[in-house]
Design goal:
The protein is α+β, with helices and mostly antiparallel strands. The chain has helices at 6-16, 56-76, 109-112, 118-136, 177-195, 199-220, 225-229, 265-268, 296-310, 314-322, 324-333, 343-353; strands at residues 21-27, 34-39, 44-51, 84-88, 96-102, 107-108, 146-147, 158-159, 231-235, 243-245, 251-254, 260-264. The chain is 41% helix and 15% strand. The relative contact order is 0.14.
Length: 369
């Protein structure tokens, strides 16, 4: 007799813990498997699976960070995140984590967007602005990292940044943007060294990264200091499959909060992801596999509407407008698409900042003092 699947084992555990399951079906939401469960009393809930990977410690930390943040959201925030009901941690009997939330109405933006009218697209942009400002206003510890499992329903605690890739983990929380940029530079060079083979290719990649750092050194001193020093909560993985949208073009749920971080406001304030045409999303420099939901012209129009929607919060608006080049530069650090010798990044740097300048002898010279 075949062994039960992970989802069957988890459903059995839910039954043992008092959930009277009537039926269930799998849904395509976010990055991992999700099951919609109908209960005997008429309620519908969602069970989100977070399978363990080859790095089980990393998977566990991401799961704990996500559930800690969802628990806090459920008690303290109107941010449209899934409302947490129950947690099913990994065990010897179940090699995977899961949690249960209230059901979310609507469907993924990727499926609905092609059917939207111009008015509906504008409403969606305003709904995103409402979400972004609510997230931006949450009071958090003033360091850069990820949310800790030790966070309580009363207080969020920040720990060193957790990433899905082993090489990207941070060893400490960063007190300033300056320190965070040191980490990002090291991270990009380490990735380039791993991907590029041959001394010449590695040298070209390292030179491209150093050139970007040199330009950022000049650029950073032009930014509003409060937008650089104030830390806010951010979602690092927003995309076209983790936004849930209803028939009125309102965002009903933001998924995949395992990709959370605390960042300087200048990096956190940004346009809706489906409207971005800068950095790694610029058609001139994007990877061949990149797809866009919206045309460049309509994206530009909707970005102007977004600017108007967030202008009531002067702090957010300033960070949004001043941080475009810095956010695009950071986007290249986390770009997972193929870019031998950092060639696409180098062309973007030349187009954005102009001719090469003298590179700093080490990355610490990129730090603001």
């Amino acid at each position: 007799m075949p062994a039960p699947s992970i989802e069957q084992t988890l459903l059995a555990q839910l039954t043992q813990q008092g959930f009277h399951i009537k039926s269930f079906r799998q849904r395509r939401l976010g990055a991992h498997p999700v099951f919609e469960i109908s209960l005997a009393g008429g309620q519908t809930v969602l069970m989100w699976l977070r399978p363990t990977s080859f790095d089980s410690d990393c998977s566990q930390r991401l799961f704990e960070s996500e559930t800690a943040l969802l628990r806090w959201f459920s008690s303290h925030s109107a941010v449209p995140a899934p409302r947490l009901l129950h947690v099913l941690p990994s065990s010897t009997a179940t090699p995977g984590n899961a949690f249960v939330t209230q059901c979310i109405t609507g469907g993924p933006i990727k499926d609905l967007y092609p059917t939207l009218s111009s008015w509906a697209k504008e409403q969606l942009v305003r709904s995103y602005a409402d979400f972004a400002l609510k997230l931006f206003d949450i009071d958090i510890p003033q360091t850069i990292g990820s949310i800790s499992v030790t966070s309580s329903t009363d207080e969020l605690i920040v720990i060193p940044r957790i990433c899905s890739a082993n090489h990207a983990h941070a060893s400490e929380v960063f007190p300033t943007l300056q320190k965070y940029l040191e980490y990002l530079s090291t991270l990009k060079k380490r990735r380039a060294f791993t991907i590029d083979t041959g001394e010449e290719n590695r040298f070209r990649a390292q030179a491209s990264i150093s050139q970007l750092i040199a330009h950022l050194r000049r650029h950073l001193i032009q930014l509003d200091e409060r937008c650089v020093r104030r830390m806010v909560l951010a979602h690092d993985g927003l995309g076209d499959m983790n936004f849930m949208v209803d028939s009125s073009s309102n965002i009903t749920g933001i998924l995949d909060w395992w990709k959370n971080s605390t960042l300087p406001a200048i990096l956190a304030a940004d346009y809706p992801p489906w409207l971005r045409y800068d950095g790694i999303n610029d058609p001139r420099f994007a990877a061949p596999t990149k797809l866009w939901l919206e045309t460049p012209e309509e994206s530009a129009r909707l970005r102007r509407i977004y600017q108007g929607a967030v202008k009531s919060n002067d702090f957010y608006y300033t960070a949004l407008m001043q941080g475009a080049q810095l956010r695009a530069a950071v986007g290249w650090v986390f770009d997972i698409e193929d870019d031998p010798c950092c060639a696409r990044m180098r062309q973007w740097t030349l187009s954005t900042f102009g001719p090469p300048i003298g590179s700093p002898s080490n990355d610490s010279q990129c730090i603001l003092t």
